[in-house]
Amino acid sequence: MTMKEYEHIIQGGTYITMDPQYRTLEDHFMLIDAGRIVDILPMTELQDFKAKAYTDAADCLITPGFINAHSHLPMSYFRGWADDLPLHIWLKDQIWPLEAKMLAGDFVFDASLHGAAEMIRHGITLTNDMYFYVDRIADACSIAGLRVIVGEGIIEPEYLGDLSVFKRRVQALKDRYQDNPLVDCCIAPHAIYTCSKEVLKACTTAAAENNWMIHTHLSENQSEVEDCLKHHGERPVDYLAGLGFLEAHCVFAHGVWLDSEEIKTLAQAKAAVALCTDSNLKLSNGFVPVKEMLEQNLNLAMGTDGVASNNNLDILEELSTTAKLHKALNHDPVLLPAREAFALLTIEGARALNRAHDLGSLEAGKWADLCLIDTNNLQSQPLYNPYSHLVYSMGSEQIRDVMIAGDWVMKNKKLQHLNEADLIEKAKQYKNTIISKMES
Ligand SMILES: [Zn+2]
User: Fold this and answer.
1) Distance of CA 307 from the midpoint of ligand 1 (Å)
2) Which domains does the chain carry?
């Protein structure tokens, strides 16, 4: 009998599985076929299996790929355009005029390609993205090999004057990506303050009809909550719940100003909050009540937000800041310990995006989305506890290889489907275009 030949075998290293038992495995190998994890087995059984390709993971941590629960990929070219401003001035005087002059399909595609490359370098294997021209975001991610959930950012009046147009766009998105395993779609109203009641209601209907999740910004700053109370007579979560939001799976970006009742309501509805710590800190929007959210078992995940407010896509750094910040704010060094923190980037991130059944941990049957992180360096030694290093000491530059759906998208720190030098050159050219358009 001939021996079955699998696609990949990864051997050696330490497997940080993030499975329900939080097992870490040494002296094991991983069998991968058809883009999925077949099994993780003891090295003593290696001779019973054969693969087309072998990867030596000695001195590496093998972790699930990192999950980014809130991003705006096409904002890559806006990095550093305007800093040190309050959110409403930053948006109104800087970002929205910039978008009005620059937004076009090709711009979105090029900037998304740049962002996708950067995400892969930082170990991100799935991003939940909200913006415009989302078909071009999905095209860019497919070329990069990055898994993406796209949601057309719905802002009135440009994007949703006529509900039949909205319906057609949702259907077109669905038709276009139904056979692409890297692309999923969701419904993404921008925020309460940019959408009418009718539009938000239409979003819940569309989510139900397509069985899609809803992704939106929620309670990012205090004035949003005050506005909602003033215009709708309710706090944001009650307002959205009344419109049927919580009947869908929801992921809310920010959640800085949620109160105790709102946290309880969201936890009961099994909704999720994407923590965008760097963006909240930089725009000075406040501090998320993380301690209370954890006590209420609210599903938390990590998001980078766009690079215009972050200003990078280093989600490992973002996690480290988050873990330390909430300890300090609560005078509680025990809060959000390393393993629990790392779960936000992996299995909890998958849960937030309704993908815990096939992503977020290294388990048989799940997609082979993973990172190999080199520990043979000064910064990583000695290594007593891998979770400690992942959250408190490692940097993204230690990420050596990244695999998405069984495809090496980065190998030995080299992107496999994109030319990094070309991307850098293109970004430099766009800088000149942006400056001259904004001056004219
Ligand atoms: Zn955002």
Assistant:
1) 10
2) 5-64+359-415 (2.30.40.10), 66-352 (3.20.20.140)
